[in-house]
Amino acid sequence: MKNEYFALSLTLEAFNCRLKIVNNLHNGVNRMIGSVFIVGGILTFAVVVINLILLKVTAADKFVSYFPSHIFVAAGLVLLLVATFVNESFAGAPLGGWGIASLFAAAIGYVITAMIDAYMNENAQNA
């Protein structure tokens, strides 16, 4: 009878250790996802501000205001490519997360810049 309880306690102990390991992995993934969201938000704010400043200081027929988004797309693709070979992280987010955040920031930057550019040049096209 004593051996049955011992085997049961070993099984429960092993299961408990496995749950602790899975829980620790889950917490690490949550922190990593949170870091990628924070990085994406900061990069989005930065690229939108830079695009809008360039939009205000350049002529209406120039497309210089879209270059920061082009740079973020290129950087995002390079970071995603490097992330396939190197398993490193920076500021709590892996290189692939930085690449995804850069691509997200570039996409939002394109959309906002295009909308503002269209409204700014509305009168120029009607004249």
Task: Write structural notes for this entry.
The chain has 127 residues and is mainly alpha-helical. Helices cover 82% and strands 3% of the residues. The chain contains 4 helices and 2 strands, in the order ααββαα. A two-stranded antiparallel ribbon has the order 1-2. Strand 1 and strand 2 form a beta hairpin. Helix 1 (2-57) runs parallel beside helix 3 and helix 2 (67-83) runs antiparallel to helix 3. The N and C termini lie far apart (95 Å). Residues 1-10 have low confidence and may be disordered.
Overall body shape: elongated
Strand content: under 5%
What is the rounded distance between the termini?
95 Å
Please give the share of residues in helix: over 70%
Keywords:
127 residues; mainly alpha; two-stranded antiparallel ribbon; elongated; disordered N terminus
